[in-house]
Target: Probable caffeoyl-CoA O-methyltransferase At4g26220
Amino acid sequence: MEFTRAESFLHDGLLQSLELTKYILKTNGYPREPTPLKKLREVTARHPGKLMSTAPDSGQLIGVLLKLINAKKTIEIGVYTGYSLLLTALSIPYDAMIIAIDPNKETYEIGLPIIQKAGVEHKINFIESQALPVLDILLQNKDNEGSFDFAFVDADKENYLNYHERLLKLVKVGGLIIFDNTLWGGTVAQPEEAVSEDRKESRRSIIEFNNSVSIDQRIEIALAPSGDGLTICRRIR
Ligand code: SAM
Ligand code: CA
Model:
């Protein structure tokens, strides 16, 4: 598998050694990737936004966490072609569910035939919308408070803190909220002037998010340097 160093930072990881990134994917990521996910990755590779897809090693970590907490009621914000959505659907039980939110239905439909063939579409309630209004509607029903086991956020970085506040009400104590791209290509540790213009705004949002959750007493936290950085938050109060 060939990829440029820039691609490896964006898609396959922040590890400074390209060889180590390849090693992890070759020994673990690709051989243990379920066939439908492999197909979805291959189909996505033909799409111009392919680098937005969740990295297979991050996917593996998310899959293990979903099983560890026996997640049954989940939310995903930011679907794209559905790599993380399909991996969630494959990791949760037959009668479990995912509310999946994305304003772009066209990209969801790229992966949909693979999701259908994998026999997990019945678990998915896809909502074509910006996520904030959907979360607000969910919160209007008190029964939804503390009812979700798991949430994965991989959408507009400017709203990460807004998502965090709402998801902390929707996810139960002991549940997980995972945020992707929290190292933003490594730029969080670089001076702003070294960062390209198109990455600056999201970098600022991610830094603000990282600072805020690092002192948030309502959660336990781990920032895993997998893919582009995964912040794992466990609600404790
Ligand atoms: N998790 C996906 C995967 O594994 O393939 C990748 C998601 S991609 C990085 C980001 C997605 O967030 C895009 O599909 C985009 O349409 C969606 N998005 C952008 N703004 C959004 C918003 N306000 N609410 C929900 N989704 C949004
Ligand atoms: Ca991502």
Observations:
- The domain at 5-235 is CATH 3.40.50.150 (Rossmann fold).
- Residues 1-6 have pLDDT under 50 and may be disordered.
